[in-house]
Description:
139 residues, alpha+beta, Heat Shock Protein 90, 4 helices, globular, binds adenosine-5'-triphosphate, binds magnesium ion
Amino acid sequence: xxxxxxxxxxxRQGIGGDxxxxxxxxxxxxxxxxxxxxxxxxxxxxxxxxxxxxxxLIHGGGGYAEVIPVTNGRRNGILIVFxxxxxxxxxxxxxxxxxxxxxxxxxxxxxxxxRLMDEFRVETTPGEGTTxxxxxxxx
Length: 139
Ligand SMILES: Nc1ncnc2c1ncn2[C@@H]1O[C@H](COP(=O)(O)OP(=O)(O)OP(=O)(O)O)[C@@H](O)[C@H]1O
Ligand SMILES: [Mg+2]
């Protein structure tokens, strides 16, 4: 469980095509600015969100993203959640291995996104889908 309580409105964006990945980036950027994340942290967050949105689209067959301003009682941050009802990830350790891809990608998106975020959690059930939740905290 990620310790993060909402402090504001949840924004949701469906992910069904490339344009939606752009919309997710815009939503995440706007939330990061509103929460006053540093420019570096904004960029890390948006980059991670972009990779996760692409995974939702390409591997998950589409789904949606939620962007939520949160606090852990000490710091504010942005929680991003990506949900799909695709095939799921059978071997998570393998999926996090740099260079592992099942779709001819670079195999760097998931591991890279985890490195860019402060909290990172994957819930996945083969045949049912995947939910990735991640937080960037203000410094
Ligand atoms: N939402 C998802 N549903 C099912 N499988 C996924 C999902 N996200 C990631 N995976 C699996 O994990 C692998 C690694 O993901 P990762 O993002 O690191 O690489 P990639 O998407 O294949 O390539 P890249 O992101 O570098 O373009 C994917 O190839 C895929 O098999
Ligand atoms: Mg990827």
